[in-house]
Structure formats: structure tokens, C-alpha cells
Amino acid sequence: MSVSRVVELEGHIIDSGMMQACFGIVMDLDGAFDVEEFRVGRSKTEESYCRMTVTAEDPVTLQSIVHELHQHGANPADPQDAHLTPASADRVVPEGFYSTTNHPTEVRFEGEWLPVERIEMDCAVVVHPADEGGDRGAERSALNHAPDGEGPWAETKVLNAIEAGDLVVTGETGIRVHPPERPREKRAFGFMQGGVSAERPSESTISQIAEELRRVKADGGKVLVVAGPAVIHTGAREALARLVREGYVDMLSAGNGFAVHDIERDRYGTSLGMDTETLDHPRKGHKHHIYTISEVIRAGGIPEAVAEGLVDSGVMYECVENDVEFVLAGSIRDDGPLPDTITDAIEAQNALRRQAHEADMVMMLSTLLHSVAVGNCLPSTTRVVCVDINPATVTQLLDRGSAQAVGMVTDVGTFVPTLADYVLAEES
Amino acid sequence: MSVSRVVELEGHIIDSGMMQACFGIVMDLDGAFDVEEFRVGRSKTEESYCRMTVTAEDPVTLQSIVHELHQHGANPADPQDAHLTPASADRVVPEGFYSTTNHPTEVRFEGEWLPVERIEMDCAVVVHPADEGGDRGAERSALNHAPDGEGPWAETKVLNAIEAGDLVVTGETGIRVHPPERPREKRAFGFMQGGVSAERPSESTISQIAEELRRVKADGGKVLVVAGPAVIHTGAREALARLVREGYVDMLSAGNGFAVHDIERDRYGTSLGMDTETLDHPRKGHKHHIYTISEVIRAGGIPEAVAEGLVDSGVMYECVENDVEFVLAGSIRDDGPLPDTITDAIEAQNALRRQAHEADMVMMLSTLLHSVAVGNCLPSTTRVVCVDINPATVTQLLDRGSAQAVGMVTDVGTFVPTLADYVLAEES
Amino acid sequence: MSVSRVVELEGHIIDSGMMQACFGIVMDLDGAFDVEEFRVGRSKTEESYCRMTVTAEDPVTLQSIVHELHQHGANPADPQDAHLTPASADRVVPEGFYSTTNHPTEVRFEGEWLPVERIEMDCAVVVHPADEGGDRGAERSALNHAPDGEGPWAETKVLNAIEAGDLVVTGETGIRVHPPERPREKRAFGFMQGGVSAERPSESTISQIAEELRRVKADGGKVLVVAGPAVIHTGAREALARLVREGYVDMLSAGNGFAVHDIERDRYGTSLGMDTETLDHPRKGHKHHIYTISEVIRAGGIPEAVAEGLVDSGVMYECVENDVEFVLAGSIRDDGPLPDTITDAIEAQNALRRQAHEADMVMMLSTLLHSVAVGNCLPSTTRVVCVDINPATVTQLLDRGSAQAVGMVTDVGTFVPTLADYVLAEES
Amino acid sequence: MSVSRVVELEGHIIDSGMMQACFGIVMDLDGAFDVEEFRVGRSKTEESYCRMTVTAEDPVTLQSIVHELHQHGANPADPQDAHLTPASADRVVPEGFYSTTNHPTEVRFEGEWLPVERIEMDCAVVVHPADEGGDRGAERSALNHAPDGEGPWAETKVLNAIEAGDLVVTGETGIRVHPPERPREKRAFGFMQGGVSAERPSESTISQIAEELRRVKADGGKVLVVAGPAVIHTGAREALARLVREGYVDMLSAGNGFAVHDIERDRYGTSLGMDTETLDHPRKGHKHHIYTISEVIRAGGIPEAVAEGLVDSGVMYECVENDVEFVLAGSIRDDGPLPDTITDAIEAQNALRRQAHEADMVMMLSTLLHSVAVGNCLPSTTRVVCVDINPATVTQLLDRGSAQAVGMVTDVGTFVPTLADYVLAEES
């Protein structure tokens, strides 16, 4: 006695790997499939369509198969409304809650497909009916920079944003996922299917990233830079400061250490005590680091330190001068920290989340911790550039299913100056 | 004015990724396709079939598309005999020679499909017509452990084995490639599609490798171990020696250094001068290494040193005592070398090639150089286990398209003893 | 009845590290020294001089000490001619041959010091007396681009260049080595002094760590374990839980992720969705992770979840049951987090600091972030064990100047079970 | 007009490296020393004593020298009380605060040496006078598990624990540091002394290497480049060819693969089939590689191929045109090989040895195998530059005791072009 369900796939389902993934899922999970209709796109612009019945021994197995198929873009052929279950308490999800992918997603509510706003991986989906009242609408428009909506709407919520009574989507019905399709034409930014190699022609790759960066800015897009302290230690500070000054960076995400090293370099010409020009190690080492923090604390914060002339160069200086929003997230490794550093992890994560959702392009420069935190919040449609000397870091960061990503195993100390040269040379 | 060609795919072409790969190739190479017939396997055991016309702007583009499709298992719908062009000189291939994949391959000669013997990546295919005479037939049977054939036959040849007059396959017609299909049931050994993670439960994975090793031996298969010096330095020597003694290793591939370290351990209790039990460093260091080589030279070689009682334990000792064939390949880093080491790279490569073609399962233990050399000669149907502390090494070695491979980023110093415990425990 | 020998050092022997190295050698090799004369260079250009008598229990030990001292530039005070022994055959060195360093070297022949030409590490030294005749002289000038010499000369030979009859230097007398001195002025090019190697015998090292762990506990010391999520993913959870249960862990420092993975394993048999026994990937993936957090939130925290029977195995369970204090520090990557996680970085750092100051031994298991945070707070007298698959992590963590530290580049998935076996086996 | 200060060291100051470190500090920081008294411990249990006057040009330099000496255990000979300065605000340290090491430390207060409690690196020291009252005493005993003290006491405080009014130690007087001494007996746990860090300012380091390269050439020295295939794959080929053409390379050591990739790039614009400009992958892949070898074989070798115009750009081309001697060593991984490749390992090693002995400076670019082979033959006086993306490779290569070496963990694809720019820019 087996159970079954009919699902459909459409689009460029063969060359995007959707068909392969879906067949694999059914077989891996001990199900069976019976293809009822298959129309292959006869040419590269024509889309394909597949309808098949998936069968399993029991409802639990079937549910887990259908859940996985969902995640890969196969949707039930007989759309019904999504099930909604109220959360019983703050930060508690109902049994069987739907856990999101990072792909564009729709949820069916009262016969209508609602786009899920601020899509992000591993979240719950909460539906807000139309009659919820004004406050929520205002909140929504604040969050999404969208005009006040009157109708019902849906959004993702991370576990700790769930409030008692939230209508959380449970089960697998009434949800449509749209994984990214393989682009029809060739691009600098690859369609990610795993595998990162260190041996690629570095300068050519950088020039293509420069081109994409210029294109994003020309189209009015927003660029988020996620930067680790190695950017300062390896001497890439001035080049990054130039990119900020010239308007190629809209937001900065970093840690307390990054900002301190950057300001220490301005104040003392050192980074963790080492002179980044002469390689001299004045051997006062960490003391400059602590002084730097102490002085910024005395001033009241970074903008205040810039205002009173304490800091007059570098990445943080340019951010302040050019109204580039920066988020400094605290960590247990920090000295100090600076008054500008958000020490609460949840609060810091929410600040990063806001940046991630606004960004059209993200450049992750030599920081695993902050890049993972930002990457967790990104929809699969955002362009991602990831640069690190450690191949494992690059692999891990690109392994999130972004549709347009490029990874480079290289040294930020030469990457950022070379990138800045390409970007700014093309300008003049 | 465009040119076109009809190609066919059959088998589990969707879930094995063949369809996806082929559509991708046509688009990447600026071709177009027109699917004329597509029968999808309705269930997981039913095979699929696709026939499509591939079109390109010019014959050169079409040829490169068709070449790539070949490599992924799409064959021309209108089979003709393969083109054969005689090699003009030793070690010189004709223009347009067919370069092999590591998948099972057939070549069409006088209307008949001949399997290509000893398939290996990046080689030429040479066809031997029936009337070639006795010598070649004898050579063939020697190479392949097969009864004397009377009819025509085909084989791969590396560039430097090509002889003037050899009939080399050129062009893309008359060749059929069979890439491995995704197994229908789940297995310990994965169907490789890129991506290696360091974070897998180590002991469970090792126990599954042990099981596969026992299964291969139970089926009368041959096991080749490719071992680097780290096996000795990290203290895994005794465990590997046990596996040899108990009959779980049929062939050993290593370098001069491996054998010297192993024998040094027997003679002096050290490996490169460090006592591997007490961690004491007697500080005679490299001297033991040189002495070891000097003594084996005096004896005349490793088997002679074993015979005269100079060596009475360890991996090399067990190989000699148990008639396990070993190939020691020389390198520019070597001290000595031992008389048993093959110093000529071509000769050593040929010895490795013979081992690779006989093996049913290959275990690559902490050596990039030898593992790449062996891996280059393996058909895609051989089981491969690859263990290294460096994730990049594991990724590179598994990236050869083996159908059944498992990679572990772990320490051979704990891997081999744990494996030996699992294998030999199950025995008793 | 002991034996002794007088040796001399001269030059910038203190700041070049020669004195330190020589004192260390004598102590490591169980010898004793008696400094008879010591003239320190009073200023940075003045050279120093040291003459000391080295004593050992037996001639073999003395010889090995004197050999090592040689390699570091200490020469016997009573120069005699070097011993020369003819090679008995091609490529065979005489017993007791002198094995070279790569430093400039002289050999004493007929009362005269000859520079050893073409110095190179790990070679033999061959002396050519003056009357050798024209061919050798010609060979020498060809090799060295030097004018024909008339007198005797010496050179290094690699093993396989040794010819029967070559006069090979044996023993330790009549040789002077000149290690490079630390440059007096600063330069771009550093003075290199060793590094960190991954290739040490793993099982022996682990057994010594086990011994130290037992000793610390026997002395009433406290053990702090700093653990990353890889401990769970690689299957080392049960072994660590055993160590906690058996009283070998007094404090635990980890992140939110570690605790969630550990509890998820208890609840669902998975870690981030992967079954750590069967390697099956139930494909519900991250959902178990979120559920786990949600349920612990509902219970009110980990101790409450243990109390109500929600969690009944694993590391966190054993910590609760055995009153082992745990500190879970939050991070911007976290899901949830659990109610037990300290989300404020400063507060978390203070909690870690308290643990760090109480610990007598710290084991850092596969977590860079938490290990750095703990390491920052440690006095240099605390014993540190650091295990990671990434050599760079181990190097960075040991680079804090601990007086008693051991680093292993290995896989925690095999390290922790092996450690537990050693620790607990010795117990019974 | 110079200033000076008398400092003392005592304990096992030689074998613990303290003397060496202190002499090094004075020299690095442009000071001078005059050893007034030196009593060496005559045996391994006897302690040593050194008193010396340290002189510098100005008080600031002297202070920084004395600060560093402190950190390494040298204390002023004329003990005075430590200076105490009240903190002006919470989380703000006074100018000139003393920044701690992680070694046991004492501070002198009212003529008495107080141990600094809870010692930890990079903190301030706060002294609590005796009359502070009950609360602080209670706090202290809570923190330290110690009985209530009545007298004055001292502790470390991290920046953010500093409260307004805290008496913070400033300056360098009245403080004693006790670095750990090398244990007298052997232990499992090593005495750690630093490592290798990847984070150095890349462009500055490269400019200094460029300067050294120019200096070596200006002095008539010879430069040997040891290059791996990554030089070609990462796009550094043209820059290396320029350096050869401009006379900055006298010898080249590489493998068969390097030369083939270089010539393939000339012939087909690809390297292993990938276009290094456009990143296009013509998908003929390995075939170009085999063709390249086949054509050079037909020509008779690389110089012949250059002579007949088959090759007209690249590294090998410039070597032939500029009479730069190249040694191509064969390996078991090779395709072909080229007729110029030396396939016998012994013969190849001898050729490398000749190059190594002639070189005054060696640049090792992304090849472990060839770099180890060359490094084995180098005297410790040869300048070595080692560049690799893998930190383990750099560490291993620098671990040969060279007196003048610089290692960079960076990407050759950006390193070589940047180096060529610096070298050739300075020229014009």
C-alpha cells in the first residue's frame, strides 16, 4: 500500500540540473517515479516541462521526498493553499514548519501566490493576512522599502524573530521555489556547481570582477564589502579606501579588529605593531592596538574621532566621510571593543542581515566568520565575489548555491590594489 | 550557412547528468540543438533515449562540439567506421588524433565495434587489423592476460608509445564512449560529482572502506596501495605491514623515500632520524637514512637484503615475503637511490601503468606525486580511496571522474591502523 | 665511569643562537657540560668565545653529542686530522662517515684546514690528496670553475657519486663547521629558524598526551576542553562524552553550534542533517538543527531539557549530569541561539577568561575562533594541546609563547576516540 | 649625546634563549650594549647571570628597547617603584601604560615586589593599595579563590575592565617579568618558539625582493628561478618572460609540464586547454597539450622549435633567445615528455645540483617537488625567495636553515607581474 503525489517542473530544467537532481532525490530516498508527460525544449531558448507521479511506501517517506523536490524546484501539480500554524510561543516553531531555501519562493494563500519577501536560507515563512492592521504594514514597508501594501503578504523569519501567534507555513503544500537557471550566455560570473581551483589566471579574473563591479554601480546597484583584518595586514588598506572614496562601496561589514587595525595604521603607521611599509616591527606591538581603542573610546566613537581630527585616512575614515554605512560585529576575540562595535551577536546579525538584503553584489575579503554570517542571509540571486588565501574558505563560502559567484584563492594584499587599478583606470 | 550532425544518447542519461552536460556543451560552444526524439525512462529502472541535431556556424566549431559530446557519451546517430591515419614517426601523432577519456570506449572498424583495451585518459587509440601477424597478438595477450585473438583489436597508447606506422584513430566518427552511470542503489563509494568535505564522521567512513576492501578481495579482485613517506613518519607502518601480510594488498606503488624510511625504521628504529615510538630524536638524523641506502646497495637490493637477514620487518619486508609486487619510482628529490628504484621516469611510468590496469581497487595514502601518476592511468571504473591531510590533494585526486571513489581528509597515522583493525577484526 | 671532550665555540655565538643550541643538545642527549672559559662580546661587533668540557656516560653517547655540537658550530678544542676511510665499493659509504650540514665547512688534512668545496646537506666528505694526478684536478676545475689546484682538496659527494677507493671522512674529529651568523644589520631577508611539521607519529603523540592528561588529573589539576562543531560532525562526540563522564574534563568552552549539533545528534541521530553512523543524509538537513534549538528554547535551556528527559546522551548531557561547567559563546553565524548561549561578546569573553585562568591544561579541538579567544587569556605556564586538520590553525594557536604545548595536525574524528581509548585503557 | 640604562638577566638565560633574544632586541632597535658582568652557569643546573648597559641615541629609543627587554625577562638593575597613573575615565588607559606579556610578572610598590595576579597578555596592570577597603578585597578573593588579603595587591585588567581612578602602571620601571625557562628534562610537551605567519604586507615585501634581485644582479650574481606550472596557469607567464628577456634570470629549473604549458600557450593561447586571457575553455583540453609535445618532438627539441619559428614567445622562448640555461627534470606524471626533458632522476638531480651551486639567489615559484630538489643542494649562504599559495609548502622549503630567506604565502599569478613591475620600473 503505497502513497503518491504528482509534481511538475518547468523551465530550463535539464541544463540547469533540476531534472537530474529531482530524479536523484527520488531514488536516494527510496521512492519511485513515473514520468507522465515530458516535453523537452527543442532548442536552447525553449523551456522544458515534466510532470511525474512520485510514489513511496508510506506518507512520511513521501513527505520527505516531496520536501526535497520542492527545494529543487519541483512543485505539486495540484496547488492548494499552504498550511498555516500559529507559533505557540516566541522563538518556537510549530511541528512541521517549512524551512526555506535561498531561492525566490512563493506561497499560496487564499488561492493567490504571494512572493516571500526577504528570502533567506533555513528560515520559517510567516504569512500576514490582509486584515492585520496598520502597524505591520508600516513595519513591512520600512523593512522592504516598499509602498504600504494593503493585501496579505509573506516573509521569512529566523527562529529568534518568531513571535507567539505568527502564522507559520507548515508542510509542503502551497509553496513554489524557483532555483536559478543556468544563464543562456557566457558570463564572468559562473553558474556554481561546486569545485574551486587555485590555478586560474589571476589578473584576467580580477579584470572581469572589476568590470562586473563597474556594471553593478552603473546600474545603480549596491555593493557590500565584507572585510577581514588581513586586508590591513597585507597592505591593501589604501586601495580599499580609494574604492570607498570613489563610490564603489556602499556598505562595509567587518569586525572590531578590522576597524582598530585600520585606525592604528592611521595613528601609528602600524598594524598590530608592524609597519606595513617598511616591515619594521617597532616592537611596541599590541600597545598601539590598545591605545587606538582607548583613544577612540575617549572621543566617543569613530565618527567623533574623525570629526575631531584624530583619524584622517583609511577605510573607516572614508566610510565616515562618504556616508558609507558600516557594521562592526563584536567577537570573543576582540580587544576593547570600540564603542561602534555591536557586541550582542543577535543584534549584530540583524544589522548584517539588513545589509545583505540590500546588496546587489557582495565582496568577501579574507574573513571566514563575517562572510559566513553574511552569506547565510543572501538570496541565491545576489552576485558574490569571494577572495581568500585558503582554498577551503573559498569552497565553503561558494557552496551556498549562489547563481552568480566567483571565487579566487589569492592574496588580498595584491588582489585589492590590482582590482582598484582596474576599476579606476577604466574610469578615466 | 551552418553545418549539423545528429547525435544520440541512451541509458540513465538524466540522473547521470549526461543530458545536462551535453546541453551545456552545445550552448557553451555556441552551437544550437534541436531535439528530434526524447523518450524519458518512466521509472528508475527504465532507460531514456534522446536524438538531437546539433548545429554550428562552421565545421571547426561543429567538430569541437561533437568531440566534447563524445567525451560525455553522446554518439553520432549514423555510425561509420573510425578514420585511421598512420603515425608519420615515432612519438608523433597525426593531426586530428582522437584523445581518449577514461571511460569504456569502442571504436568501429570494418563495420564492427571493437572495445578499446586498457582504456586511459588523454591517450591515442591505435587499431591493429587482423592480419597483423603473430607478434602483436602475443604482445597483446601478454599485456592483457587474454587468450590470443585472431581478429582486429584496438588499444590506447600514450604519446611516447606511438610507433611510426601505427594506425591512429583521427576525427570524431566511429567512436562510442560509455561514461559511468549513477548506481541505482546507495553505496559507500559515491558517484563523484565534485566537492569534498573534511567534516565527515571518520570512523564510520573507515569501517565502510574496510568492508569494501574485504568485498573486493572476496571477489578475487586486486588491491593496489600507493603510499607516501608520511605513512612511515606518522607511525602507520606496522598497520600497513599487517595488511600486506594478511593478503589485503596485491601491489605497492611508492617512491625511493618510502622504502628507505621503512627499512631505516627496521634497522635503526627511526624514520628520518626520529624514533617513531618515543618521539626521541637521536639527532643522527639523516645519517641513518644514508646508511640504510648504503647497506641495501651493498646487499644488492631489497629482496637480497631480506634474504641475508638485513631487514626483517616492515612494509617492504612483507612485500618480499608475500610476493607482493612493488614499484619504486625515482624522483629528483631522492637520496641514493636504492638499487630497486626505477630512476627513468618513462620506465617507472610504464611500471605504474601496468599496476594501475590490473587493479580493481586503489588506495592512495598521502602522496600527491605517485597518486597523480597512478590516477592518470586508471579507467573510470576502478574503485578509488584517497586519504590525505591536505584537502586540496584529495580534491585534485578525486577530480578525475572516477565512478566509485571516496576521499577522506584525515591523518594516515590514525587512518591505516583503524582500517587494519576493522578489516582484520571482521576476519576473525 | 664517564668520558669527556673539550669543545670551543667562537663568533657571535649568543645572538646567533649557537650557545643556546649547543647547551640544548648536551641536555637533550643526556650529557653534562662544564664551562671552562666564557668571554662574552661586550658590544655588538665584538665576538664571543666559549670553551667547555662535555661529559657523557659512554663513548657512543659522547660521540652523538659531539656530532650534534659540530653541526651547530662547536668544534673540538684539540684539533686533529680528520679520519679518512676508503670506500669499499661504488655508492657504499664506510661505517661512521661524516654527514654534512649545509654550512661552510673545513676539514683538517695533514695539519692543514681545507675548505670543503660545493657544500651541501647530508653528503659525505671526500678528501683528494695532492698526488692524485691530473684527471681529478681537471675534474675539479670543471666542477668549480676554478683554476687547477696543485695541493690536496676536499669536496662533498652524494651517496651515488661515491667511488670505490674514495677517501671518505669518518668520525667527528678534524672538522669545523661555520653556521651562518645573525646579520648585524636589519635586512629584508630573514634569518630562518625552523618551523612546524605535520609528519609526526600520530599514535605515539596521542599516547603521550593521554599520559599528560592523566598526570594533570592525578595532581588535582583542571582540564578545559575548547571544542568546535567538527568534533560532532567527524563522529568524535561519543568519545568526548566518555571523557566528560569519566571525569577527565572539568570545563567546556564552545559555541552555540557545537551544543546544537551535539543535541541534534541525540534527538535525531544526525548532525546538520547527516547521520553520523550510516552517512545517510536524510535530506531534512537544516530543519533538525532549527527544531533542536526550538525545543530547547521551549524547555527553557539545556539543563532543563536534560531534566525533562528531552536529551539523554552526548557531550552536553554529560556536562549537565557531571556538573562540568560549560560556556557557550554566541557568534554572528549562529542559528537560534539556545537560551544557554551568551550572546554578548564581552560577557562571553569574561566567562572564557575565568575558565582560562582556572585551567591547568587546555585541549583545543578544531575551533580557531574559540581557541584564539581562550588562548588570549592564558598565562604562558598553562599546558596546551592543539588539534586541527589545518596546519595554519595549529601554528597560529601555538604561536603565543606557551612553555608547554603540543600541536597536532590531525583529524579530531580519529584523535578523540584514540585519546579516550588510551586514557581509559590505562585506567583499568 | 646618548642615554643608557643598566639591565640584568638571571636564570637559565642561555638555553632558554633569553640572552639571544635580548641581544637581538638591542641590535634590531638600533641600540648598543656593553656587557659588564657575565657569569655563565657552568653546568646544566647552575644558573647564569648577566649585567649590561644598554645605550641608545635618545630617550624614546631607549625606552622602546628597555620595554622589549622587559618582555623577555631583562630587568633594570636599579629597581624603583613602578609609576602609577590613575585612569581618567572608564575604559581609557593613561598614556604610557605598561602592556603585559603572558609570563609571570611582579610589580614594585612601596619597595615591595607584588606578584601580578591573573596574568594575561596585552593587558594593563592595576595596583590596589592596602587601604582600599573591604569590597575590593572581597572581589579579589572571589576572583582568585584566595583568602582575603590585607596588604596591597596587583592584577591585570583588560581595557574594558579599567575603571576611572584605577591606578594603572605606566612606564617601564618597577616591573619584573619571568619568561618560562626551557625545562631541564625532556617532555612530551615542547617549548614553543614562534612560527610562520601569512599576514605580511604583500606589496612592500615584493618591492624589497625586487630591490634584492636588482642588487644581486648589480653585483654580478646569478639568479636561478625554479618554476612550477602554476606560473603559467595563473597568468604570470608574460611577466616571467620579461624578467628573462631583461636579464634578471640566469638559470631556469622546471619540469616537463612547465615547458609544455608555456609552449602550448604560445601555440594555442591555452594552458591545459584554458584560454588564460578570456578564461574560455575551448574544451579541447588536453589535446593541445599532447599536440604541443608531438610538434616539439617532430622539430627535435625546444631550441630547434624556436629556430624553425614554431615557438615565438614565452618563458622557454626567451630562455633560448637569451642563452638562459634551462633544466627540465622528468617525472612520472609527465605526458610525452619533450626531447629536452631529462627523464633519468639521477641525471636530472645532477643538473639541478650544478645550477644550485652556481646560484647566488634562488626564487622558488609554486613548485614543491623541484624546490625541494634544488633546496637540498643549496649551501646555507644562498639567498632564497619562496612563493606558494600553500603555507605548508613555504614552511617546508624555508625549514632548511638558510641564513637569508624570505617566504611569501601568496599567489604567483599576482606576485610575478608585481615583481616584474617593481624590478623594471626601478630600471628606467
UniProtKB/TrEMBL annotation, chains A, B, C, D:
<dbReference type="Pfam" id="PF04455">
    <property type="entry name" value="Saccharop_dh_N"/>
</dbReference>
<dbReference type="InterPro" id="IPR048964">
    <property type="entry name" value="ArgZ/ArgE-like_C_1st"/>
</dbReference>
<keyword id="KW-0520">NAD</keyword>
<feature type="region of interest" description="Disordered">
    <location>
        <begin position="131"/>
        <end position="151"/>
    </location>
</feature>
<feature type="domain" description="Arginine dihydrolase ArgZ/ArgE-like C-terminal first subdomain">
    <location>
        <begin position="104"/>
        <end position="206"/>
    </location>
</feature>
<protein>
    <recommendedName>
        <fullName>Ornithine cyclodeaminase</fullName>
        <ecNumber>4.3.1.12</ecNumber>
    </recommendedName>
</protein>
<dbReference type="Pfam" id="PF21571">
    <property type="entry name" value="ArgZ-like_C_1st"/>
</dbReference>
<dbReference type="InterPro" id="IPR048963">
    <property type="entry name" value="ArgZ/ArgE-like_C_2nd"/>
</dbReference>
<feature type="domain" description="Arginine dihydrolase ArgZ/ArgE-like C-terminal second subdomain">
    <location>
        <begin position="208"/>
        <end position="419"/>
    </location>
</feature>
<dbReference type="GO" id="GO:0000166">
    <property type="term" value="F:nucleotide binding"/>
</dbReference>
<keyword id="KW-0456">Lyase</keyword>
<comment type="similarity">
    <text>Belongs to the AgrE/ArgZ ornithine cyclodeaminase family.</text>
</comment>
<dbReference type="Pfam" id="PF21570">
    <property type="entry name" value="ArgZ-like_C_2nd"/>
</dbReference>
<dbReference type="InterPro" id="IPR007545">
    <property type="entry name" value="LOR/SDH_bifunc_enz_cons_dom"/>
</dbReference>
<dbReference type="InterPro" id="IPR005239">
    <property type="entry name" value="ArgZ/ArgE-like"/>
</dbReference>
<keyword id="KW-0547">Nucleotide-binding</keyword>
<comment type="function">
    <text>Catalyzes the conversion of ornithine to proline, with the release of ammonia.</text>
</comment>
<feature type="domain" description="LOR/SDH bifunctional enzyme conserved">
    <location>
        <begin position="5"/>
        <end position="103"/>
    </location>
</feature>
<dbReference type="GO" id="GO:0008473">
    <property type="term" value="F:ornithine cyclodeaminase activity"/>
</dbReference>
